[in-house]
Design brief:
The chain is an alpha/beta fold. The chain is built from seven helices and eight strands; from the N terminus they run E-H-E-H-E-H-E-H-E-H-E-E-H-E-H. It is globular and about 50 Å long. GO terms for molecular function: agmatinase activity; metal ion binding.
Length: 269
């Protein structure tokens, strides 16, 4: 059996952020934590980078923070898929998920999406910007790129977003009385989108929009590890190193990269 290969691709952009910029610096911070000697390359199930699966670092894309960046992202993801790899994207703000999913759906057809976040990111537009980091899933859904969107950790659902969720049939797992067993196990092709502000700011302080009352890391991992569908791509987004404390959020992001890759590798076997 071939060893699963993942391409780590950095997306250093935050031009669609709505409050504080800084997420463009996240890929460098996540890489530093991922390859640091303070930890090792093993996931919790015992699989190891370089042994049970390969994680090839393809660096950061030369993004220009213009409308042309979407095409650059789509091309890079397509090239990764053409090479037989599974793309793992390091944001950057959450706006990057739209062109990534565009490229993946062009190959695999409409995907199921498991989305961890404090915010639903389904605004029709936010502050006049339809490509805002608060809008990527509205763009994904209206383009027919997603069969099923399950959102976990949401705790900022305003009237407009409730209307959008009803319009698109989004499945939002209530954060009140949350338990990992309440989250569906999704069929593949499956895309995982991990916005770090979905996790409680006590554990992930390095984000632009901290929202108390969030998921714990163990809850996120329990949901992720329960997934059995074929994972065809993932992103980890919205780390803002400007607000991080002792690299805690970057270290968490690096762990999530390992765990997503290990889960995807397991599900291919």
């Amino acid at each position: 059996m071939l060893t699963p290969t993942f391409h780590l691709i950095g997306l250093p952009t935050d031009c669609n952020s709505s409050f504080a910029r800084g997420a463009a610096a996240a890929p460098k911070a996540i890489r530093a934590a991922l390859w640091s000697d303070r930890g090792n390359l093993a996931a919790e199930d015992g699989q190891e980078i370089g042994h049970d699966f390969l994680l090839e670092d393809h660096g950061d894309l030369p993004l220009t923070e213009t409308a042309g960046d979407d095409a650059i992202i789509r091309t890079a993801v397509t090239e990764s898929l053409n090479a037989g790899a599974i793309p793992l994207l390091l944001g950057g703000d959450h706006a990057v998920s739209f062109p990534v999913v565009e490229a993946i759906a062009a190959r695999h057809g409409p995907v199921n999406i498991l989305h961890f976040d404090a915010h639903p990111d389904i605004y029709d537009d936010f502050e006049g910007n339809p490509r805002s980091h608060a809008s990527p899933f509205a763009r994904i859904l209206e383009a027919g790129l997603c069969r099923r969107l399950v959102q976990v950790g949401i705790r900022t659902l305003n009237r407009h977003c409730r209307e959008q969720a009803a319009r698109f049939g989004v499945e939002i797992v209530p954060i009140a009385d949350f338990s990992p067993g309440k989250v569906a196990v999704l069929d593949g092709p499956l895309y995982i989108s991990l916005d770090l502000d979905g996790i409680d700011p006590a554990e992930a302080p390095g984000v632009s929009h901290p929202e108390p009352g969030g998921l714990r890391t163990r809850e996120v991992l329990a949901v992720l590890h329960a997934q059995t569908g074929r994972i065809v791509g993932a992103d980890v987004v919205e780390l803002n190193p400007r607000f991080d404390i002792n690299d805690r959020t970057a270290i968490l992001a690096a762990k999530l990269v390992r765990e997503v890759a290990a889960t995807a590798a397991r599900n291919l076997r």
